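so i finally got all the pieces together for this one. its two components total, 227 residues if u count the protein bits. some of the lines might not be protein, just check the labels. i wanna see the whole assembly predicted at once instead of chain by chain like last time, that was a mess tbh
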Amino acid sequence: GENVEQHPSTLSVQEGDSAVIKCTYSDSASNYFPWYKQELGKRPQLIIDIRSNVGEKKDQRIAVTLNKTAKHFSLHITETQPEDSAVYFCAASKKTGANNLFFGTGTRLTVIP
Amino acid sequence: DGGITQSPKYLFRKEGQNVTLSCEQNLNHDAMYWYRQDPGQGLRLIYYSQIVNDFQKGDIAEGYSVSREKKESFPLTVTSAQKNPTAFYLCASSPLGTANTEAFFGQGTRLTVV
């Protein structure tokens, strides 16, 4: 099966700095890579996703990059704000009908005002 | 927040008892999933269902059971066979198609064994 590793487990940055979270996956057949943000006590919510036919995707202050050869993908948050503080999960899945997501272990991001 | 609803938000169970967690969605999604979330371990798949009256085991199905009698509903039963049931349980749903799409999560049920 798929194995997704995520680093770091915790990350603290000053407000306005950038944050980078990295994930690797093991199954070369995986072709969909979403990132979820989970605020304390709330449900995970999709913030950005990327498919294997694309190397980079950007949405305002958030960007995701994918290196299929190396089997790793990263989340980049620029100009961080206190409301970015949350736990972020990466995930990977294959196009097998059901969207069976394999999740990383999460990164707790703290943005210090 | 609408779309996918889990109940209750908090649940307490005595050892040796079965307990059922509810998950309902009005998004007309074919696929539904149950994940377990433990500190430092991310989300792990328990069961999933792509169609009514059919479901498949995920990575950690032992001690759990599900049913899918209606498209909108995918209840999870935590049985007494589950040795460490205290956790946060998340239900999700997604459409099926030729390309993977977003999975929508419920707000979760925190189960505590007392």
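Chain A has a mean pLDDT of 92.
The two ends of chain A are 41 Å apart (CA to CA).
anyway lmk what u think
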